[in-house]
């Protein structure tokens, strides 16, 4: 039969940005964002995002240029998820916990033209800018000062380095602005940086198409663009504050939330611990929820779901779809089942585990390990038809995937990815250090913490042997706090393969035995 | 920043077929299809669809060839939605209410290689095949005999014209069959025929991409591929049987159903009328639900939603997203709001009403009419960046679309689209008829029925003037029952425009006045 070729009416680029136009029509009066004493409707959010997109264009932002955001979960952070790509720019969300040096590298690498800076991060960003090489063009800075919004009065923060306040820039924008549609659904919409497995942060850009497919997965969950698709309400939280979380859950009848396993742990150990008066779906990823945490959180009314994804996959691509009948099983069995990462999401075409030698799928016996590979519309990279995750896993007889070795070197601490080579490079820079290797040490609170193994230079070269405390202090001066090893083990020599590579799996066993 | 080009890992074609693989893993033990005393799990449905896809391949079916289905909502009908495209073939669902002549044309036009035939439609299909021109290749026929499945015994229907029974063909298939993935997401997956506005049925093919985007919209509703995405249960019904509908809703705690307005009318007028013990979402389209019907169905526990779509758009693309606050309004006001078609769905990029002269969007005042145009990933056709629906509508100040004149000529009777030129061409073929025009006449039961206006040939040419009854009988011999005019009005001359076109809007007013 005749071929069905793309044409202008049916090949409109897939994008999630139009969801906001629709939300303004379909859910105009419904609350979109709630934060302290501020609340917006979807009509207002639509209008504010168009205004901000318009202002960005007036400031000279052009299609494909990068605009960065350094802010916690405040309303402007949500608005910028739409407003930045609506101006045609690429949205670059930056972790507020990075150090000035890393931040400076990211801002230079991304060639960011404008940086939105939360007032709590202003000194960090100013320091990062000061580290730019001479004669380098600096990005323009816009100050997010939500306390001004809440109190209605101007902030007293120094704004000499800033172009203006967020609200000032927004007010100048045209609420009738015709937002910049992508020319192709493959146009980049978001640029994220992953710490990756090498010491150099890697830029991961996701297309409008990828974000659309991801959002399809997220329609039943609580991610920014999906919320605009269903007209839900975003409750913003500047930081993890337990009593506030419990208060907001009750006050706004929160249905969905996300949290790293460490957040689950905190929720279940809270002194404010109370049974919820309704069920709350909580999605966790990064590490399986341990049985005692699962038991406590579930008894309180949280319904925990577990998923798996990477920066390169635009978020969760495998989830532990829960079966009704499993509810009847004892807790330990439920925890075991829930600790598995699960099945591919609807938007992820395939998740498989391949034998590294044959390249063929491993036996589905829950024992035979191989490399986890993925393919699907939300992925960033690929070769040979698959994206190779670097993670080692098994497939159970029921088809559910389980990650066995989270990856050769990444350490996940409190939900943050730590690249061990990045920490190692700092250790290697210490004058007394000969060899260094950093591995994950299991930790009840953080999930994992970095544990450093170092061998020191021979006596003749050293004036004095550094202590564990000195090494930790040395790292603290050069790394974000969460990346600093919590323990340093001195070895005369690190275990190595015949080809000279450090055998991290041995160090990991030692670190585990010490935890 | 650097461009993000498609690569083999992230440009896997969008398709809904993989949902079935995932459903087998994630919801394997959950019921997938329930019909009389037959029930399947998602694991079984997955296995059976792979077997049938395998058998189709063994029968010589090749990528892009058409396989047709003439069957009501029985389990095999559901399975074929996956099995046919999983063999690489294009699925062609055919209305069981067509006459043998039309059916014959569709089967020839689609060059269908295999036709799955429900045992209730076997004589119809055999007649359609007998109308094929001599020396034309006939499709192979496979008999769907679900009573055999239910009772476990072979049917006694004559199978001499049939290759085999559905179950026999399926049993020969390989449950480990590697299904045929589309080479491109633009590959056709489904071929539907619309009666359209011309007398010739128009083939509308929808790509894997279009069906994927449509299914995203349908994730919260009850359409075949979406059900596999969420692991829901399909309750099959051979026909609209009120007492059975009520029994099944209670027995299986049905959450979602679809029905033309005529079904809503029947539900609310049922002698078995009972209040449901849980809410049932019912989606209706084709005509707005009238206030009394809305009042009765809502009081019984149905939550009625209203949408708009065309064959060419792969289903609903505009829906009347309901606002909480509207629940407080009086019934007549709620009915008025719900009678509007609404806002574009998440998967539909834009729905607009354009001034036919300027091509610009009309004023959003609920009064200025224009042509309804659409664009989005699930559409079939397009020109000038828009798909022109031929329907006339307005946009209300709140952004909701309302169709004012359902289209210049389509009549929707009991949920069936009737192309007036198709009926007119039969009338024109009558020896006594000079001019003919068929328009919709409002009908409490069917929504609309076809009403014919004819002028007869002058006396000199006629031996005898035909009666209304004779004209109706003449149509009945040549058209499917539902397309036959229920009323024939004789006029000396039909009202026409200066360019000679019949002014149907005048005839519609007359028909309305007579109803």
What do these coordinates show?
Chains A, B: Residues 422-501 form the AMP-binding enzyme C-terminal domain. Chains A, B: Belongs to the ATP-dependent AMP-binding enzyme family. The structure is a homodimer of 515-residue chains. Chain A has 515 residues and is an alpha/beta fold. Residues 150-156 of chain A have low confidence and may be disordered. Chain A has 3 domains: 18-229, 3-Layer(aba) Sandwich (Rossmann fold); 240-405, Rossmann fold; 410-514, GMP Synthetase, Chain A, domain 3 (2-Layer Sandwich). Helices cover 30% and strands 25% of the residues of chain A. In chain A, helix 4 crosses helix 5. Chain A is globular and about 70 Å long. The longest helix of chain A is centred in the first third of the chain and has 17 residues, at 42-58. The termini of chain A are far apart. At the A-B interface, helix 1, strand 9, helix 8 and strand 15 of A face helix 1, strand 9, helix 8 and strand 15 of B.
What are the key terms here?
GMP Synthetase, Chain A, domain 3; five-stranded mixed β-sheet; 25% strand; homodimer; 16 helices; 515 residues; alpha/beta; Rossmann fold
């Amino acid at each position: 039969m005749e071929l069905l070729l793309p044409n202008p009416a049916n090949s409109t680029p897939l994008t999630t940005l139009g969801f906001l136009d629709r939300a303004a029509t379909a859910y105009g009066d419904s609350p979109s964002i709630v934060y302290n004493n501020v609340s917006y409707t979807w009509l207002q959010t639509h209008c504010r995002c168009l205004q901000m997109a318009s202002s960005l264009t007036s400031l000279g932002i052009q299609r494909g240029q990068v605009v960065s955001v350094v802010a916690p979960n405040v309303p402007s952070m949500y608005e910028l998820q739409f407003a930045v790509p609506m101006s045609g720019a690429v949205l670059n969300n930056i972790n507020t916990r990075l150090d000035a040096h890393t931040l400076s590298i990211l801002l230079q690498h991304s060639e960011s033209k404008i940086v939105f800076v939360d007032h709590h991060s202003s000194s960090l960003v100013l320091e990062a800018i000061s580290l730019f090489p001479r004669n380098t063009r600096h990005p323009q800075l816009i100050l997010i000062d939500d306390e001004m919004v809440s109190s209605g009065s101007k902030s007293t923060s120094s704004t000499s380095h800033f172009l203006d306040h967020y609200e000032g820039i927004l007010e100048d924008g045209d609420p009738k602005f015709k937002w910049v549609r992508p020319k192709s659904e493959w146009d980049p919409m978001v640029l994220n940086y992953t710490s990756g497995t090498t010491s150099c942060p890697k830029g991961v850009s996701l297309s409008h198409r990828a974000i659309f497919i991801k959002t399809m997965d997220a329609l039943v969950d609580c991610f920014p663009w999906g919320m605009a698709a269903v007209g839900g309400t975003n409750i913003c939280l500047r930081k993890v504050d337990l009593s506030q979380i419990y208060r907001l859950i009750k006050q706004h009848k929160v249905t969905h939330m996300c949290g790293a396993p460490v957040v689950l742990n905190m929720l279940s150990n809270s002194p404010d611990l109370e049974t919820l008066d309704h069920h709350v779906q909580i999605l966790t990823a990064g590490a399986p929820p341990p049985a005692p945490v699962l038991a406590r959180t579930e008894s309180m009314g949280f319904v925990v779901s577990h998923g798996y994804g990477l920066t390169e996959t635009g978020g969760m691509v495998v989830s532990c779809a829960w079966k009704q009948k499993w509810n009847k099983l004892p807790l330990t069995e439920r925890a075991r089942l829930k600790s598995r990462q699960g099945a591919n999401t609807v938007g992820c075409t395939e998740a498989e585990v391949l034998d590294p030698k044959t390249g063929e799928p491993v036996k589905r016996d829950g024992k035979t390990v191989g490399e986890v590979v993925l393919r699907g519309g939300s992925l960033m990279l690929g070769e040979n038809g698959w994206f190779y995750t670097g993670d080692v896993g098994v497939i159970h007889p029921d088809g559910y995937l389980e990650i066995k070795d989270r990856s050769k070197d990444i350490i996940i601490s409190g939900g943050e990815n730590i690249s061990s080579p990045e920490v190692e490079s700092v250790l290697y820079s210490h004058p007394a250090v000969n060899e260094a290797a950093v591995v994950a040490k299991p930790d009840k609170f953080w999930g994992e913490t970095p544990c450093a193994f170092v061998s020191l230079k021979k006596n003749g070269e050293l004036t004095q042997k550094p202590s564990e405390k000195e090494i930790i202090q040395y790292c603290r001066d050069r790394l974000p706090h969460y990346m600093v090893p919590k323990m340093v083990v001195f070895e005369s020599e690190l275990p190595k393969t015949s080809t000279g590579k450090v055998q991290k799996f041995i160090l990991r066993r030692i670190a585990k035995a010490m935890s």
